[in-house]
Each structure stands twice: as C-alpha cells, then as structure tokens.
Design a protein that fits this description.
alpha/beta, 631 residues, 2 domains, single chain, binds adenosine-5'-monophosphate-propyl ester
Amino acid sequence: MSELRIRSMADYRAAYQRSTTDPEGFWADVAASFHWRSPWAKVLEWDFAKADTKWFIGGRLNITENCLDRHLAERGEMTALLWEPNDPAQSSEHISYRQLHERVCRMANVLKRQGVKKGDRVCLYMPMIPELAISVLACARIGAIHSVVFGGFSANSLVDRINDSQCVLVITSDGIRRGAKSIPAKPVVDEALPSCPSVKTVLVAKCTGEAVSMRSGRDLWLEDELKQVDADCPAEPMDSEDPLFILYTSGSTGKPKGVVHTCGGYMVYAGYSFANVFQCEENDVFWCTADIGWITGHSYIVYGPLLNGVTSVMFEGVPTWPDPTRFWQVIEKHGVTQFYTAPTAIRSLMAAGHDLPSSFAMPSLKLLGSVGEPINEEAWHWYHEQVGKKRCAVVDTWWQTETGGILLSGLGSITPMKPAHAGLPLPGIRTILVDQQGNELHGEAEGYLCIDFPWPSAIRTTWGDHERCRLNYFAQYPGRYFTGDGAKRDADGFFRIIGRVDDVINVSGHRIGTAEVENAIDEHPDIVESAVVGYPHDIKGQGIYAFVICDHVRTDKDALRNEVIATVERIIGKIARPDKIQFVSGLPKTRSGKIMRRILRKVAEGEMNSLGDTSTLLDPAVVEEITSGRV
Ligand code: PRX
C-alpha cells in the first residue's frame, strides 16, 4: 500500500482533495493495492435515504488472503501475532505469518467438518488467547460470518446475540483469565444454550484448565478436533458486499443491534486507515490493548495490522495486574513501537502513580494512540510526557462500531497535535456539524456530528432489520449519517468530540444504552420503574447513575442496592453495573408521561442550581425529593 501512504501534510491535503473531487477514483486506487480474485464492476452505489451503501460492486476477494497468504513469500517467517499472556511468568508466543496461516486453515477445516458453510453465523465467546484471532480469521476464510461477544457479557446477553443472528456454532473456552481472577466462559455458554436452538456445536478451547461439563453430541474439545484436520484450506471467494462480521452494540433504544460489515469495503478501509494513522514501518511492533470483543480489536488487532503485514501484539491481561507497570514492562519486553489504548486505562494508571512510567525508558516507542472516549487534557499530557517522554506523537482516534475504522485522527506525527482533539478527518471522510434542525454549520462551530458521504467501511445494515439501521442512523438528518455524538470544530478545522448526545453512556470506553440498564433493573421483583443517566467519573469517563422506584417500603436499602446491582450483572454483565443508585418515590415526568432526563442528568452531575424550567412537570415536588436525596 506504499503508494497510498500519506507521508506529509502536503500528501494529506492532496489525498483529501482528491477524495472529495473524485471519490470513486480515489477509493479505486486504494482498493487496487489489495489482492482481489476478480475486479469490481462499479466502485460505489449509495442512497442514504434508504440506508444503502455498496462498494466495489461485483468484486471478489477473501480478506484472509490479504491478511495471510499475500505475505507468505516476503515475510512468512516474520511474527504476525505476538501473544502476551495474562501471567507474566508464562511465556509469550510468537506466531509467524506462515504459522498463523497454517493455524487459521486448520481451524477453518474444523469449522467445515462441523458443517459450517459460507454465510452461516458463528459466535465467539472467548478470552484473549491466540485461538480467538485464529477463529475470527478461520470464519472469514470459509465465508462464515463471525459474531464476537465480549467475554464479560452474561448468559442472558449471549442468548440475545446468538438468537438474533441464529448462530449455528459457538467457540468458547473453559474459562477466562483476567488478572488475579478467573471468570467462567463455558458455564456461561451452558447456561445460555438451552434458549438457543440454532446452535448445534460448541468448540471448547483449553485456557484456565478448570473442569467443565461437556455435553455429548454438542460439545467438542477444540484441541482434539484440530488433530483431525489438515492445514490446507483454500480461501472462499467472497463478494465485496457479502457480510464479513456482525458486532452487537448498544443504542438508545431496545436491545443491542448487530452492526454488519462487509468483506470488500471493510478490508479496504481497515487496511488504509491503519497504514496512515499509525504509520507503521517494516519490523514495527504494534500494540492495541483492546479486547477483540469490541470493534477496536477487530480492526486494529486483527485485520488492520495483518493487512499491512505488521506484527500485532495481543494481550490477554489487564493493565493493573500484577502491578500498574504491566503495560510499560510489555512495551519494553517486546520493543513496541506504536501503542494504542483507552483514556480509562490511561487515567487509572495515572492515578496508580504519576511517576510509575519514569522507570521505563521505552526507547522503541514512536507513537501513542487513544480511542473509545474523549481524552481529557490532563490525561493527554500525562500520556504524552510520562509515557511518550515528549518524543512520541499522540493520535486521538475517533470512530465507532458502525464506522468500521478510524474517521477522525492525527496521522502519525504528520498532522499537528492538539491535546484532547481528535483532529482532522481522514481522506474520504466528510464529517460535518449540523444544528438541531439539520442545518449545516460552517467554520468554528459546535453541533451534531454527521457524515455526508459514504466511506468503504460504513455500516451496511443492522442484522435482520434494515429499517432499524435506517431509523437509527439515517433518519434524524435526512441524507446524512448521524453519529450520535456532539462535537466542536475550531478555526483550523480540528474536531473535538464532546460525547454522546443520545441516551447512550460511555463507561470506560464501553457503550451502554440507558434503556438496556433500566430494563435490567426493572426485572428486580421489587422495582417498579427506573431511570438511568450518565455522570462524570474521574477514571471511567462516565459512571452510571440509576434513579429507582421500589414498589413498597424496604428498610434494608443496602441489601436492595446490592440486589439491583446483581440483577444488572446477571442480565447484561458486570460492565453495566450502576455506580450509584438513588431510591426515589417518583420520577420527573411531563404531563405526557415522558421522563425529563435533563433534570436527572443535572442532579447526577451535582448541578442542582441549574435545573432549568421545571414548570411543565406533572409533579414539580418530585424534583425537591430527588435533589435532596442525591447520592
Ligand atoms: O462517543 C464516541 C466514543 O465512542 C463511541 C463509539 O463507541 P463504540 O462503537 O463502542 O466504538 C468505540 C471504539 C471505536 C463514539 O460515538 N468515542 C470513540 N472514540 C472516541 C470517542 N469519543 C471521543 N474521542 C474518541 N477518540
């Protein structure tokens, strides 16, 4: 992809300019640097009014040929995946491109042997062990659609995701190591599967070694199955617009939706954005600390680095175990050159000891990246100074599950840095700001962040419900993709993300729908109604604040609080547990019965003096009770 690599500000300007005057020619040139089985007939067809986007129409390819086969001749012996285990006492594993190719082919043959065919959905519920990346690629190899579910979700969440996309097979492990703890995986699958009739087979990888029950006729040890197959598996030629994967994400309403990405466009944009944002050179060691259960792991642990023939570090552990210098130790151990993590991790490590990174020179580091939530200036400066020793550029990358790849970001050290600003759009990305009525705002402005033109890795649909995709993203501002984020643009055209403007909370970089948490809380038999909002949290960015109405007087409020938390953990998972719960006798509602969340947000934020107009409330007295009972 060298000819499309941006190496200077002039290159960036030229690429951006061309991407607006000749988008099809621009993206055709980018796409031509990948390997296609047969070329596309047409670059782009789109109609945002119908939420329709198609790229490289009629082209055929397999993304794994681009991630693996294409590199074998030149860099077959180079490390593709560098796995660092949870426990530093255990050895890390270097998997070369050749070995990864072989292991992916074997895994693909295991799937085929179990009857998995092109277009079938496969659910991966796994720890951050090499088998997870291998399973992702094995699905792609045979054209099965992977749906990775983060290992912290509950059985109930797993049921919803498996059933929504009718997965035929689940790959899991006995358990999941996370720092000093081990959490169950197979038992969660066992709990889920009685409600998932589409699943015929479960493949179980060994990770923690704990005993698990195996149901005969359904459950198989992966290790045994891998021995039954050979390492030759031709890649299935896929249409550009065939789905590559589904990834569930939370929105403001209803259950999580399955965001669908397709083979051609996703490949082109994941490869292109990785090359230009991270500016990796041959022999660089790139480390993204995300979990493959999220889009960041899909695009920038697995696909982006491998498409570019780079070494990608995959880390099983957590930043604070055995101690909060674990990241810096790993960077030194493996000579990491680009390091990509989330503001929550940065803030928690900063809180664990401001000077801790000073004992680590980390001479290999060239670039630092941030993703998932707004990075505050204090954390940005600490990252730049203490971790990057003021010599590494910091890129703040803004994007979403739906965008497939990074849309706003610095490009290596090429574009100027501004603390806490995501910066400029990548070539091909027409980010605009609009006011509430959808009028475009020009120049310096603050507004709703929209995208005016398709890009190759744009969401194609929400699995099984295209209308939901249209309504969620393309209906609010007709003719535009609406991100759900508010943003500011300064006089230099740099964007600064303010945060979600819908009913989604960003907790530690994880998207959580307030409605989902409310529905979970309401499952508790003593709770009649609840309302959930976000509030600023020093470490997590946002915390979850729940206002809860109990249907009778319970004096043991602490016990009830714990029961409510346990209910949310059971229904969604630990990541959605409320940080604060306030019991109230009523919620501030308008006469039409709508909860005025604005008031609840102000109370949660502690800004009780600026509640605004409360005259339209059905019962203004409720506000008095809520403000005085704030926790
Ligand atoms: O609010 C934005 C925030 O995360 C949301 C997308 O979440 P998700 O789909 O889970 O993907 C996260 C990883 C790409 C966005 O709508 N967000 C993401 N990156 C940033 C960000 N907010 C501010 N700055 C960022 N760099």
